[in-house]
Structures are given as structure tokens and as C-alpha cells.
Amino acid sequence: MRQGCDILLVDRRLRSSGGAQKYLVELTKALELDGLKVHALINEGDELQAYCKSLQDAGAQLHRFPLGDKARRESEQAIAEKLLELRPAGVHVNGSSNALDAVLEPVLGGSRGGFFKTFTIHQSLLNESLYYDTRLKGKIPYSYRRRTIRSARRYMGLYDAFISVSHVNMGFSVESLGIDESVVRYIPNGVDIGVYSPSGRGAGEVVFGSCSTLSPYKNHELLIRAFAKSGVSAYSRLRIAGDGQEAGMLRSVVQELGLQERVEFAGHQANVPDFLRSIDVFCMSSDSEGMPYSQLEAMSTGLPSIVTDVGDLAVVVRDGVDGYVVAPGDLDGYARSMAMLCESSVLRRNMGEGARRRAIENYSSQCFISKTQHFFAQMVSGRRRASAL
């Protein structure tokens, strides 16, 4: 173990909540449990106070840096100076953003600090390209996509190894960006199966639910319209947890469909386990995903799911076993799945039990911790061997 800093984590976010933020907190805990000294370098911003506190509570020593179009040189200088000050064994970057990538490329590319450089792939190294492939295919100029891929290839060439939380996006990165598969480790997210445990809800009207930010790519409108079309809204309810830019539009859709008494907007949930224990079926209707924590949390809680076939959702949820998988944007298919699960308590119970077993076997916190610790132990020991030569 080093006297100063073993791992410097670098991240750029706009808000405190989200899967990538939760991931970095869990990563910090795993590294601290393994005896590594962790520092975190996070961009400035008033909306990040809760995120920064979570990182500190997990054991990271926190540093901030400016980030913005007008502060690019200042950002580069701040990060370079922090690298010289801390002299970490390794630098780990938590996902891709245009603003952060532009700052890190000259800093990491010009550094002679002797540290290893690793990177977590969340959704896609080309979020735009992945989204275009699934929703806007044929509408984006090929020349733009080619330039974007060429730029990403150059930037990703700076890193020694990668963690991918998504099996699907790992394949995309290897095939489209030419990353050597041997340096990419698939480590899916993990959840605390003790905290996210079943409640044994009693009989009563069936409650469908979702829990995520109300963002365009989450496509909650599909979920609401499928609920209306399913024919079960008269004797079931839909609870939508979360907040975001789509809230006003979604409330208008509910009013248009006359579902004000059957659809509840539950807002931000401070206690997600309790929210999940208040519903019977978990729903994700996204147009784009990676490996969402909310899906793993729902499965650990023993809930059957209805999900769209994007990202790793079809990898995690076995169609017809743990829930139903429908094509992105398939209103009829989503409505049929809601109707089938609403009408059979036996089906809901069997699928929920299967989901819980799958979460325990493959997506527990302990699985994530052990695989993550092994990855970084190899990187640290490799760096030490290189330094000794």
C-alpha cells in the first residue's frame, strides 16, 4: 500500500443522483475494503453536494476541479497539478462525457507519471452512436458518426484496461472502437440483497411501478399508454417514482387518457427499498440503457419485470422466466405483458421468485466487490512490478 494515494477516481456529473454516481460510491467502498487509499476528483457544482458527501462517507478523500467551455485550460491545469501532488498508482475514470474527455485527453496523453489508467464503460463509449443505432438510425450523417468513432478510438487508446458494467456495451466497444477484448473486464453492477428483500405484499389491486429519472430516453410515455391500453387500469394502479424534465409532459398524457385516479407520480424516493416493496410488477420502458441499478434492485426485491430489449435488460431479465422482454417502443407488446401479469398472481409469484434467485446468484454486492477488488489488485501489482524494473 502507498503512503499517499493508491487510486484517483475522476468523474464529471451534473447532478447527485444516477446509476453512474451510485456506481462510483460502491466502487470506492470496494477499494477501501481492500485496503487501498482512494481519492476522488469531481467537477465543481452546487448540485453535487449529496454525491460528494456519499463519496466521502464511503472513504474517499475529495478534490474538486472546474469544468466548462470557458474553463478548459484551468481544468487541465488543475487535474495535472493534482496528479503531480498525489502521484497515484492508478487513475480510474468513471464513464465518458464530451467535456471531461476533452480535458483528460491532453492531460493523460502527456503525462509521464507512471500510473496505470483504467476506465468504466457504463452505457456506451459513444452514447450518441448507440442511441442513434436504436432510435434514429438512418437520420444521422455517416460522416459525423465516423468522426465520432475516430475521436473515441483515439481517446480510448490512452487507457490500459476497462471495466464494463454492460455485456452488450462491452461488445459494442470491442467491435466499433477496436478495443482489445483481453483488456476489458465484464463486472456487472451489484445490489445489497439484504436491503432489497421481498415484503410478501398481501392481496389487493395489482400495482405496477417504475423508479428512475423522468428523462426522454426512459420513455415513460410508452409505459403510461401501455397501462391505458392493457385493459387492466380499472382494477390496477401505476406508481411512477422519480423526477425530471419529462414530468409536466407525462402528467398531460395521464390527463389526456383520463387516468388521474389510477396513475400516481410518487416523486423522488428517499427510501427506494420501501417503494419497491409497495408494488407488484416493476416496469422499464427505456429506449436506451446500460446495466441499470433499479432493475437489479427490483429483482432482488422479488418483483417480476416488464422491460424493453435495450442494453443489458434482456441479459438480466430472462423472457418468460423473470418477467417479459418487449421490443423498444412496442406499445401492444408492453400492454399484453401488463395484462398477463395483472391477471395471474401465480405467474407474478413464480417470476418474482426466479428474479430474486437470479439477483442473489449473479448481481449481489458481494459479487461486484470481489470481482472489482481482483481487477484493481492486478492493476496495482502490475504497476509495482513495472516500477521495480
TrEMBL record:
Per the record, the domain of life is Bacteria
Q: Which InterPro entries match?
A: Glyco_trans_1, Glyco_trans_4-like_N
Q: Which Gene3D superfamilies match?
A: Glycogen Phosphorylase B (3.40.50.2000)
A GO term, aspect molecular function: glycosyltransferase activity
Record has Ligase as a keyword = no
Which keywords does UniProt give here?
A: Glycosyltransferase, Transferase
- Show the SUPFAM superfamilies listed in the entry: UDP-Glycosyltransferase/glycogen phosphorylase
Which intervals hold domain Glycosyltransferase subfamily 4-like N-terminal?
18-193
Domain Glycosyl transferase family, chain residue ranges per copy = 204-358
User: What EC numbers are recorded for this enzyme?
Assistant: 2.4.-.-
Query: What is the enzyme's class at the highest EC level?
Result: transferase
UniProt keyword Transferase, yes or no = yes
Recorded hits in Pfam families, A to Z, give: Glyco_transf_4, Glycos_transf_1
CDD domains found in the cross-reference section: GT4_PimA-like
Q: Which PANTHER family match?
A: D-RHAMNOSYLTRANSFERASE WBPZ (PTHR12526:SF627), GLYCOSYLTRANSFERASE (PTHR12526)
Q: Please give the name of this protein.
A: Putative glycosyltransferase EpsF
- What is the species listed in this Swiss-Prot or TrEMBL entry? Pseudobythopirellula maris
Which gene carries the instructions for this protein? Answer: epsF_2
